[in-house]
Amino acid sequence: MDTVPLNDLSRGFAVMEGELRGVVDEVLASGWYVLGPQHDAFETEFATAVGAAHCVGVANGTDALELALLSVDCRPGDEVVTAANAGMYTSTAALKAGLVPRFADVDPASLLLTAATVEPALSPRTRAVVVTHLYGRVAEMGPLRELCRSAGVALVEDCAQSAGARAEEGPAGSLADVASFSFFPTKNLGALGDAGAVVTDDPDRAQLLRSLRQYGWSAKYHATVPRGRNSRLDELQAAVLRARLPHLAGWNERRREIVGRYAAALGEGPRRMVHGDVAASPAYVAHLAVMSSPTRDADRAALTDVGIRTDVHYPVPDHRQPVLAGTTDGVSLPVTELAATQILTLPCFAELTDAEIERVCDVLHRL
User: Fold this and answer.
1) Where does the pLDDT of residue 1 fall: very low under 50, low under 70, confident under 90, or very high at 90 and above?
2) I need a surface site. Which of 86, 115, 124, 178 has the fewest CB within 10 A?
């Protein structure tokens, strides 16, 4: 019996092999491999796609998060409020910048931050709130913007899982002071290695980001901006992303279809697709197809028994990670902690076949 993979990046390469080899060969022949014409064109095209005035390409999504935080004037010792159910990525970026992660619980239905869950976590030391559009669903940003504005803190979107999502008020990446993206190969818009970007409407912030990503230079070999580093999107990855960007909407539509079919197979009962209620919405791009079940481990075993791969995103909330031991011992996030015991990620990628989807649906229907 063939295995149904959780993801299969080789299929995505196969359907675009000729085009991808062509753009890679073009870059190789050009002799320009860093901060060249492919990079510049991608920054322009991606900014347009996400409704932002400026895009700054960087080396990876974690750098994008850290640089976004620095760009809103976060300084060592400042607190950053974020969710604890999004894989430790924001926390890692905050810690690297010398910041203090402070965790808010999430809405029990969407598993996303809301203004109501964030407000109790704000303190006089809060400099920024980072909102992750978890599993590809855009959070309710309007109330969060109002809350942050009234509290005098910056609002940052973590769009690593939501490229191409579009809420009623605008695309993911256009709804806060600054937004970060990851183009890790498994993302909806994936490179062939690590890559990331930061987007903003503020020209001064964009210029600061460009300096920070390249040694803090204000001009070549003139380092004037503190906390600079080397974090650049290379020409090969930019060319690949340019080739893939026009396909993003279609891939996202296929992902939404898959989650909708899983939700229909589950029907009414104790199990649900976490974002099954918005499976048809353009504000959701189904980066991960996540089910919630009170019998998660047994359900996972049933899927494994018939060759269906699964995973858990994410099994350990940030405030329970060993690296934060001693600093978050008193933190209680009941919704986050319960969800970590119930969530299960099912196969979901654009090249998943109808037959494979039906195999998953058959098991879900019988659970």
Assistant:
1) confident
2) 124
